[in-house]
Amino acid sequence: MRRFARVYGADPLHLLAVLFTFALAGYAVSVVGVQNLWNPDVWWKSIAVWFLGAVIAHDLVLFPLYALADRSLTSGLDAMRGRRRPRSRTVPALNYIRIPALASGLTLLLFLPGIIEQGADAYLAATGLTEEPYLDRWLLLSAAFFAVSALAYATRLALSRKDGGAVSRP
């Protein structure tokens, strides 16, 4: 097992998961059909082109941006602590900021067309409503994400102080 892990770089379960993922992707392509993934008449409407564009946009644009944001958050928290690492007794706040920020960003991505009122005429014609409340609702939802996270952090901090400062790290 150790030899396999040294040669492959991970345990056999990882290899099994990767093979399963490739098999699932192959099955999805076979069900959808290659002809439906590529539109030779209007190439930019092809699913394959949009998927490739999404991969490039994520890996070359978005990933560096949110990696920079995460590094800035970590550096900012270190600066607030006086450039020292937290004692093992303290509850780290980093994930209590990361999780609601991720949730807020994903909901922004999901509801961005409504927030920027893209297709407002079609939405109005279909529903009789405007897209005006989307921004307010997204802001309220984001505030709720951060409020719940702050409450969870405060609870965990209070429990760690009650237990004498012992914090279990996953």
TrEMBL record:
Domain of life of the native organism: Bacteria
> Which keywords does the record carry?
Membrane, Transmembrane, Transmembrane helix
Q: Which residues cross the membrane?
A: 12-35, 47-69, 90-116, 138-159
The identity of this protein, by name, is Transmembrane protein
Q: Which organism is it from?
A: Rhodococcus wratislaviensis (Tsukamurella wratislaviensis)
